[in-house]
Specification:
The protein has about 270 residues and is α/β, with parallel strands linked by helices. Strands 3-2-1-4-5-10-9-6-7-8 form a 10-stranded mixed sheet, sandwiched between helices. The longest helix has 25 residues. The protein is elongated, with a radius of gyration of 19 Å. The two termini are about 20 Å apart.
Length: about 270
C-alpha cells in the first residue's frame, strides 16, 4: 500500500501524518510526504514576511523560499523515518498551486490513498486552503481520507460504506475490501432509507429508515465508536448534504469520524 500525504506543517497536517503512521504500521505501507509551497512569481498577492509593498520578487527571494520549504520537509522526513524505521518514507517539495500539484502528482505516483487533515468543527470544504480538498476529492485517482482533528486510529473497528445500491457503490466496496482486510477492519455497508432508493435485493447492507440521511449517519457513527465512514461523490444527495457546515461539524468534531471519500476517478 502507498499513502500520499500532502503536508503544510500545520497541526492539521501533523494529525493526518499521525493517523497515516498508524495505517502504515498496520499495512506496512509506504508513506510519501508531498509539500506544495507557493511560487512568489505567481502568488504575488499572497502575504509574505519577505515581500513588502510592491517590492519586486528576486531570484534570491525565490531561492530562500525553495530552501526553506525543502529544509522543513527534510526535517519532517528525517524525523518520521527515524520513528518508523521499518516503513519506507519518501518526500518531495514542489512549487505551485496545491490543488493542481496534488492531483497531478497523484496521477504519477498512483497512491492507494491520499490522507489529508481537517480542522475540527470546520466544514471540509474550508480545510487545506478552501477549495483544495474538494478539488483533490473530485479529480484524484485515489480515494481521499479526510482526518478530523480528534480522530484516533487506535480505535478503528470497522469501515462502513454509505451505499445507495448503485453499480458505482459495488466498485467502491470492492476497493474498500482490497484496502482493508477483514483481519484489520471489516467492511460493511449502510443504507439510510429515506424512500429514494430501493434495496434491490442487497442483503449485505444494514438498512436504517430515516427521513434525514445526514442526521442518521451522524447518529450511527456516534453509536458505533471506531467507525471509518466512507462514501462516494456520485452519491450527489448524500455527498452534498454531508458537506454542509452543521453536519460536517458533527461528523468531524463531535463524532471524531474520519471520512474516506471516493471521487470520480480521472485517468
Amino acid at each position: 500500500m502507498k499513502l500520499l500525504i500532502p503536508v503544510d506543517f500545520s497541526k492539521e497536517s501533523h494529525h493526518a501524518i499521525s493517523y497515516a503512521k498508524s495505517l502504515a504500521m498496520l499495512f506496512r505501507a509506504e508513506i510519501f510526504l508531498l509539500h506544495i509551497y507557493y511560487d512568489p512569481f505567481v502568488h504575488q498577492d499572497m502575504p509574505s514576511a519577505r515581500l513588502e509593498g510592491t517590492e519586486r520578487v528576486t531570484e534570491e527571494v525565490l531561492h530562500q523560499v525553495d530552501s526553506e520549504a525543502k529544509r522543513n520537509l527534510n526535517e519532517l522526513h528525517t524525523a518520521l523515518q527515524h520513528e518508523l524505521p521499518v516503513i519506507r518514507v519518501k518526500s518531495l517539495a514542489l512549487r505551485g498551486f496545491a490543488e493542481n500539484e496534488i492531483v497531478r502528482f497523484a496521477r504519477e505516483y498512483l497512491p492507494d490513498m491520499i490522507v489529508m487533515g481537517a480542522k475540527g468543527g470546520a466544514p471540509l470544504a474550508k480545510t487545506l486552503g478552501g477549495s483544495v480538498t474538494m478539488k483533490v476529492i473530485a479529480e484524484a485517482v485515489a480515494p481521499v481520507l479526510v482526518v478530523p482533528a480528534a480522530a484516533d486510529i487506535s480505535s478503528l473497528r470497522q469501515v462502513v460504506y454509505a451505499t445507495n445500491f448503485q453499480p458505482e457503490d459495488e466498485k467502491a466496496v470492492a476497493d474498500l475490501r482490497r484496502l482493508f482486510p477483514e483481519s484489520v477492519a471489516p467492511v460493511s455497508q449502510l443504507h439510510i432509507d429515506d424512500g429514494t432508493y430501493a434495496a434491490a435485493g442487497n442483503n449485505d447492507a444494514e438498512v436504517i429508515s430515516a427521513n434525514d440521511i445526514e442526521e442518521a449517519l451522524v447518529s450511527y457513527a456516534e453509536k458505533h465508536p471506531g467507525t471509518l465512514l466512507s462514501m462516494a461523490t456520485h452519491q450527489r444527495g448524500i455527498f452534498q448534504k454531508i458537506f454542509n457546515p452543521g453536519i460536517t461539524k458533527k461528523l468531524v468534531s463531535q463524532s471524531q469520524v474520519p471520512l474516506l471519500i471516493f471521487g470520480e476517478k480521472k485517468n
